[in-house]
Amino acid sequence: MNPPTPKTGTVDRTEIVNGVNVTALRETMSAVRVDPNVAKTHWAVKTDWLGGTASRTRVAGCGIGGQWIDRRFEFVSDEPHELCGTNTAANPQEYLLGALNACMTVGYVAAAALHGVELESLQIESEGNIDLRGFLGLGLPAGYDEIRYTIRVKGNGTPEQMRKIHDTVIATSPNRFNLSQPIKLVANLVVEDSR
Fold this sequence. Notes:
Blueprint lengths: L15 E2 L2 E2 H13 L6 E3 L2 E6 L2 E11 L2 E11 L14 H23 L4 E10 L3 H4 L11 E9 L3 H14 L1 H7 L15
Antiparallel strand pairs: 1-2, 3-5, 4-5, 5-6, 7-8
């Protein structure tokens, strides 16, 4: 969200903490309380195979509160040489862990800003183990049995404030929720005619 533009002759009372427009964030929270439709979002990406183990994922935009927001981004994924790749980009597991960290980072920054806590630094490290026998169809589960992460945060908040911010992130981070809860995945296979 962009900060509101002050009218001529008025004082701009926009509050910025940690680079977050707290005034706009509170206005959004109020708008959602009045109309839950404002909170509805839609996210989508499209991924194309580039050959070998490489792929390119494109973002065209997203839906927020019934409005389409044009966003043009892309990223490439590959595998290390040891997993038959060319080692030209992060692999899907690294993007998954990065997406978890990035989502929680947004939560920490926003929650700290709402509490008036100015952050000096924030770092999240995530890791997990996958046994490749699952991916190779050799009888084991194909993914993580656990993901471990450490949050290092420094700022002017008390330990109690930091704990409250942490608890808020644990309760409200969408990507943390998506990885910690069973969610429904609905597949639609379309086999195209190659003739």
